[in-house]
Amino acid sequence: MSLRRIYGRLLRALGPQGWWPARSPFEVILGAVLTQATRWHNAEQALARLRREGALRPRRLLALPPGRLARAVRPAGFFRQKARRLRAVTRWYVARYGGRADRMFRRPWRLLREELLAIPGIGPETADTILLYAGGAPVFVVDAYTRRVLRRHRLIGPRATDEAIQQTAMRALGDDAARYNECHALLVELGKRFCHRRDPVCGRCPLGALPHVI
Q1: Which domains occur in the chain, in start order?
Q2: Environment class of residue 12 by beta-carbon count within 10 Å: exposed (0-12), middle (13-18) or buried (19+)?
Q3: Is 8 within 8 Å of 14 (Cβ atoms)?
Q4: Per-residue pLDDT tens digits for 175-200
Q5: Each residue of 16-51: pLDDT tens digit?
């Protein structure tokens, strides 16, 4: 089954996912950091606490004392580390682009990706999440769910790199940021509901049961 067919089947079965759930591009940036190594539910709780602190604006976040920022994002786990990462990416966002998404996303996305990857704590998945969901850049996000589903359906080999997976997905889906957005969100939902790392629910999976699971 091709990735394009997987996308179509998931869209019919699960419906549009409406990702990324955020009120501003800056909130997407924060959420992309907060969801590292945790569930979205936990990141959402941390964002709600930042909202109560009035810290969903770049300069307001930077004005928060470090300890208070760390306490606010505690639900997301690794809270001291994530507080430092939030401060680092926000400091860059303000210094480089005046805290304005319109300025930031006028820059070609490949160059912007290099800038993001130079920020401490921002890896490829987080950078691509920011580019796609905050800026609408045509870059596919590769995460654990993507790797698992594509590997189990034999679209990638067991040793495929994230870069190779990304290129495979982008060739299959065409140059379409909206399609990348929806497909990634659907793969995440599939992974959460059916394609578990252990004990996958293949019998009820919208993609059909596999002869054996790896």
Answers
A1: 3-18+141-204 (1.10.1670.10), 25-135 (1.10.340.30)
A2: exposed
A3: no
A4: 999 999 999 999 999 999 999 999 99
A5: 999 999 999 999 999 999 999 999 999 999 999 999
Q: What angle do CA 184, 188, 193 make, to 5 degrees?
A: 145
Residues in the chain, overall count: 214
Tokens representing 212 are 């054996």
Burial class of residue 44 in the structure, from the number of CB atoms within 10 Å of its CB (0-12 exposed, 13-18 middle, 19+ buried): middle
Q: Under 8 Å CB-to-CB from 157, ≥6 apart: which residues?
A: 151
Which residue has 């307001």 as its token pair? 60
How much is the pTM? 0.95
50 CB neighbour count, 10 Å cutoff: 23
Residue whose tokens read 């590292």: 36
CB-based burial label for 65 (10 Å; 0-12, 13-18, 19+): exposed
